[in-house]
Amino acid sequence: MPELPEVESARSVIERAALGRRIVEVDDSDTYVCRPHRPGEIRSALTGRLLVAAHRRGKTLWCDTGDNDTGDNGAGDAPVLGLHLGMSGKIVIAGADGSEVDGGDYWEGRRVKGDYRWSRFALTFDDGSRLMLVDPRRLGRIGLDPEIDRLGPDAATVTPAAFRAAVATGTVAVKARLLDQHAIAGIGNLLADEILWRARINPARPVDELTPSEIDRLLRATRRSVAAALAHGGVHTLTVIPFRRPGARCPRDHAPMSRGKVGGRTTWWCSAEQPVPAK
DNA sequence: AACAATGTTCAGTC
DNA sequence: GGACTGAACATTGT
């Protein structure tokens, strides 16, 4: 589910429904999701504190914590809670009575409201409300003090210079580079297909063979795709995503959609508009 | 029933 | 070091 737009939705859920209350209980018992922390480590660090801010870079979320009594507002050595939604994670806030207060507007998908069977991590606040990571596949990750510096610039705000620098090194396939979170942060498998389709560039093209004008198209397509997904409710609302299926035809020119594997992920592209260049 | 799935990391190879 | 592959994680939907 989550790529940059969905993670931004999760960030906003935390911001509007979980800041400013005291943490009275922490369930960090899932040793896989909370790795490499030992059970109780995250609980010890967070119990008694407040979430004071929710941030995002790429697909990584983190919350600053503070303490009303000491006036510590998340500066200095205050513990920072890192959250990653993995492939199937979702941030959900439940009220004191267990009813779902906020699960975000994006990717409601198949999940039924109030279904917390797959809660893998939870904070309980002093008013009885809870913040949960609901994650059936358990590929999400929770930890203290995440290393956000290792991520590339956020795809929603990357500058043209930084984008060109990130794309134009090495020889990897352009889609693999778009998916590289250390190069540019936030683009996932679906967003990458949409961006390359909009830019009319074959996903397998080596980055060192892209012309300056192609890199410009790629940048414009990235900005527009990310902005559209943020504005319209997630990556599923993008144009070419519904046509990533057998037998589909390109919504622009009706040529057959092709399928392959690039960067280790299933990749769809327009057979006519995104040709593999003849060598 | 087999297969793929919006992600990341690690081990192994060339 | 860079690029590539496969495995691992656990469950669901087609």
TrEMBL record:
InterPro entries: FPG_cat, FPG_N, H2TH_FPG, Ribosomal_uS13-like_H2TH. Residues 2-140 form the Formamidopyrimidine-DNA glycosylase catalytic domain. Coiled coil: none annotated. One of its GO terms (molecular function) is oxidized purine nucleobase lesion DNA N-glycosylase activity. It catalyses: Hydrolysis of DNA containing ring-opened 7-methylguanine residues, releasing 2,6-diamino-4-hydroxy-5-(N-methyl)formamidopyrimidine. Pfam families: Fapy_DNA_glyco, H2TH. Keywords: DNA damage, DNA repair, DNA-binding, Glycosidase, Hydrolase, Lyase, Multifunctional enzyme. One of its GO terms (biological process) is base-excision repair. The keyword DNA damage applies. PANTHER family: FORMAMIDOPYRIMIDINE-DNA GLYCOSYLASE. Belongs to the FPG family. This is Formamidopyrimidine-DNA glycosylase. It comes from Amycolatopsis saalfeldensis.
